[in-house]
């Protein structure tokens, strides 16, 4: 073609290979569809659960369904965003097929990345607002409870050696003290036993059993049996707390791992859908020249 004012020659080699308009369009569609699917999934989850025991979906079933829904959300939303990014991008002429494949894949990946960053910013913004509200409430509460907090800290420091102070004044049998004082001594003995290996030393067990026998009029063997029963219950609570903490840690770990897998699936399907959309874009037949003129005359 001869260059002229009506038909300028465009240097396609110096043109950018990134169509940001198509990328942002695909990212907007992916983010919007993700929001719709997340809201739908939350509604289905609330409908499947129940506040009453033995009713509704179990925790395991709810966790599995949440993972599946997260994967579907990423695949569908990212696939739509990638397809739009590939279908709406500028057509590249006189390029090798491998370069076109790479650019289409990059457009899909970039649309997924932009949508993911937008979603992350929204999540972090909502979390920041909640943290700000909590910080404001905490600062107001701190101004009210500053004096009480200082007194509580001083009391805690003074009672940190309470068990050993009680041991200094321990005699052959429990002294006739008030109800509150006896409860304090028993609580410190139990706390010492739980803090160690969960078993009371022989002298602590005997002294606590004497204290229980004095307060409840039980025999010494009966009091020792009650002490052992209470220690077993407290130890079981300690074991349950550890199991709950381990379970929470495992749930957090699996949630992070499956979120990672879902994001990888989203990136893959966005790139694949962009590749398909780009191929559809390149196979579009442009109507121009005599055909367009003929159709216009017929109308």
Short description:
This protein has 299 residues and is mostly helical.
Any descriptors?
disordered N terminus, rod-shaped, 77% helix, 299 residues, mainly alpha, single chain
Largest sheet: none
The gross shape turns out to be: rod-shaped
The class by helix and strand makeup works out as mainly alpha
Distance from N terminus to C terminus (CA atoms, Å) equals 32 Å
In DSSP terms (H or I, runs of 4 or more residues), the helix count works out at 9
Order of helices and strands: HHHHHHHHH
**SS strand fraction:** under 5%
Which bin fits the share of residues in helices?
over 70%
Computed Rg: 35 Å
Query: Could you tell me the number of beta strands?
Result: 0
List segments where confidence is low: pLDDT < 50 over at least 5 consecutive residues.
1-11, 144-158
Mean pLDDT across all amino acids: 75
């Amino acid at each position: 073609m001869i260059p002229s004012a009506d038909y300028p020659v465009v240097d396609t080699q110096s043109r950018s290979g990134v169509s940001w308009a198509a990328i942002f369009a695909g990212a907007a569609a992916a983010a919007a569809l993700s929001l719709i699917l997340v809201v739908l999934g939350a509604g289905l989850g609330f409908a499947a659960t129940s506040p009453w025991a033995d009713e509704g979906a179990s925790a395991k079933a709810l966790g599995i369904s949440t993972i599946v829904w997260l994967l579907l959300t990423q695949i569908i939303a990212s696939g739509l965003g990638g397809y739009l990014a590939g279908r709406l991008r500028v057509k590249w002429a006189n390029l090798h097929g491998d370069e076109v494949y790479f650019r289409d894949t990059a457009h899909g990946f970039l649309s997924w990345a932009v949508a993911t960053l937008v979603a992350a910013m929204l999540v972090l913004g909502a979390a920041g607002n909640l943290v700000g509200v909590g910080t404001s409430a905490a600062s107001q509460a701190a101004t009210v409870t500053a004096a009480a907090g200082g007194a509580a800290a001083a009391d805690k420091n003074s009672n940190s050696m309470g068990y050993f102070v009680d041991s200094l004044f321990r005699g052959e049998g429990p002294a006739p003290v008030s109800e509150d004082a006896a409860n304090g001594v028993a609580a410190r003995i139990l706390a010492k036993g739980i803090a160690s290996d969960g078993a009371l030393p022989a002298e602590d067990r005997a002294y606590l059993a004497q204290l229980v026998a004095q307060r409840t009029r039980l025999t010494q063997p009966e009091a020792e049996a009650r002490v052992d029963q209470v220690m077993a219950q407290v130890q079981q609570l300690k074991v349950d707390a550890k199991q709950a903490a381990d379970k929470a840690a495992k749930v957090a770990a699996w949630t992070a791992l499956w979120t990672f897998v879902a994001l990888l699936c989203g990136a893959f399907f966005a790139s694949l859908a962009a590749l398909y959309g780009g191929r559809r874009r390149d196979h579009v037949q442009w109507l121009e020249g005599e055909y367009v003129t003929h159709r216009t005359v017929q109308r």
